[in-house]
Amino acid sequence: GGGSRSSPGSVAASPSGGGGRRREPALEGVLSKYTNLLQGWQNRYFVLDFEAGILQYFVNEQSKHQKPRGALSLSGAIVSLSDEAPHMLVVYSANGEMYKLRAADAKEKQFWVTQLRACAKYHMETSSKTTPSSRSRSLTLLPHGTPNPASPCSQRHLGAGAPGVVTITHHKSPAAARRAKSQYPGQLHEVREMMNQVEGQQKNLVHAIESLPGSGPLTALDQDLLLLKATSAATLSCLGECLHLLQQSVQQVGQPSHKPGASENILGWHGPKSHSTEQLKNGTLGSLPSASANITWAILPNSAEDEQSLPPEPEPNSGPELVLSEDEKSDTEDKEETELGVMEDQRSIILHLISQLKLGMDLTKVVLPTFILEKRSLLEMYADFMAHPDLLLAITAGATPEERVICFVEYYLTAFHEGRKGALAKKPYNPIIGETFHCSWEVPKDRVKPKRTSPHSPAGHEQLTAEDPSKSYKLRFVAEQVSHHPPISCFYCECKEKRLCVNTHVWTKSKFMGMSVGVSMIGEGVLRLLEHGEEYVFTLPSAYARSILTIPWVELGGKVSISCAKTGYSATVIFHTKPFYGGKVHRVTAEVKHNPTNTIVCKAHGEWNGTLEFTYNSGETRVIDTTTLPVYPKKIRPLEKQGPMESRNLWQEVTRYLRLGDIDAATEQKRRLEEKQRVEERKRENLHTPWQPKYFIQEGDGWVYFNPLWKAH
């Protein structure tokens, strides 16, 4: 949070009786504002001008006499509390803008909320006193020829016979109209006015659909009506994004604007708000009354009646467990997910969900249907990215810094193919706090060579195992869920013989994007080659689930970086998302550069799940087909030897019922696990006891394995 230095006595007073209002200094102070996905929360200096009804913010107090970074009109604004982050409040303006803010403590949060609400109420009342005349417009979705409910003569008629019809009347004061015109110059003002009308009509449409009876020839869960709700909301959101792009273009050619900078406000208009969004965020949506659907939503109760059947929570301060490698056996789990599209009875549930989501909405607290789950934990998915350990271990065998960084890029680009089980977009289990996953690989020593000097891989997707442990390298892996809010996963792997290790922490953040879902993997990993004293810092791409109503599929997107400060080498990798029209899927390009000499030493292009072509500065080229690379199965202990918080043991009942196709039973098992996590979290909050991970220690903004190879050696 930030910290406001204002006190109740130094702020603008609420409107007093008798029509007058005391004019006192505005409320000022530091609040933390959510800027964007990359920069997160940033301290900003806020000024609430009660007289003008505007909330402005600046980079800091010293710049408050300059032009504000952003301004929000509070007339008609809604100020609400949020449990998304500590001491958080959200200000929704009447024009669709939203500020996410955090105060230093609960008292300061309530103080700001009270003042903002008082200001919004005062200016709303002032605005509503203006004569409607030409500044008022009425919107209705009534069929042509039906009397307008806004007219007095039709009130009795509608009151008796049309409970599902809603008319939304918008009033705009002269000052608000002038402000809107300055924000949306020229033609853009007319576009905004049109979008206001369409938004009102879309709200009427949604209300009319949701007012339909639960049974009969036409219900609120009718397939076509659900699709209409979903696509109309997605269309409005996309149009809002288009308007924002137009605004940016106008600003770039020198038009004045009072909107926040693009880096601080991703969308200029946030689309229609659903009345049930809060329900959805809080996970209180119950089972759908659909006769054909045998899938139910996870209901989140307030009590934990089923705790006795769940695994016991580990002691917060219990030390790391010793995992015996002789107990580990080659993994025999199913490698592929069932390649099926969305079933008809499941489609209505997804439609019902997406018709209530808003573009850009954080999905962290949205309870998703169980049938979209993949039969493994996210922690295990990270281990599956290591399915080509021979390429990883070959990095340290490179003779020069240039060869080693190129080897790392080759390994990095081939890692994602095996991590995805099939092309179908399914979601791994969200790890429970304290959940762990252990495994290892044995790699024959004669297989570990730099890629450019190694023999060609044999055709076919080989499964390789080492018969003689003395002739193989051992690569160990451990992952742990160290935080629930935000959801942070850590994993560490090492090969003592090759003096190589990787330490990574990842915060996954999901958001709704119309007919797809985006998952950002925020954080970084560090590959350490102790033999050479080199550290390679790398980031991870975003993932997108596309076509979520038909046959969902996954693609990666975004720019990632790999850099080594010691050698001066770096790489930029771009995962290209498919264009709306034409274009290829799963494209990736990469460029390796020696920064001191500004020399490009390697370029790569192709598909991350197909063929990759590398071109080196010597003119040599090499093609790697990811589908024919040998795969090394991970070794894992059987369930009876795993601890209660190890992934496969923890989720075994959910996995078992998913395999049987019993979605209801899988949903119930998942609900029990998640409810137990919530109960334990409330206990820790009441006792003010922070969670203590087993294997990872927080250092600054990152997390580090408790006994890493670079400290042990």
TrEMBL record:
CDD domains: PH_ORP10_ORP11 (cd13291)
Keyword Transport recorded: yes
Region (Disordered): 1-24, 254-285, 305-339, 447-468
SMART domains registered for this protein in UniProt: PH
Keywords tagged on the record: Coiled coil, Cytoplasm, Cytoskeleton, Lipid biosynthesis, Lipid metabolism, Lipid transport, Lipid-binding, Methylation, Phosphoprotein, Transport
InterPro entries membership: OSBP_sf (IPR037239), Oxysterol-bd (IPR000648), Oxysterol-bd_CS (IPR018494), PH-like_dom_sf (IPR011993), PH_8 (IPR041680), PH_domain (IPR001849)
Any one Gene Ontology molecular-function term assigned to this protein's record: cholesterol binding
Transmembrane annotation, as ranges: none
Domain of life: Eukaryota
Keyword Mitochondrion set for record: no
Subunit structure: Interacts with OSBPL9. Interacts with DIAPH1.
Protein name: Oxysterol-binding protein
Protein's organism: Neovison vison (American mink)
Gene behind this protein: OSB10
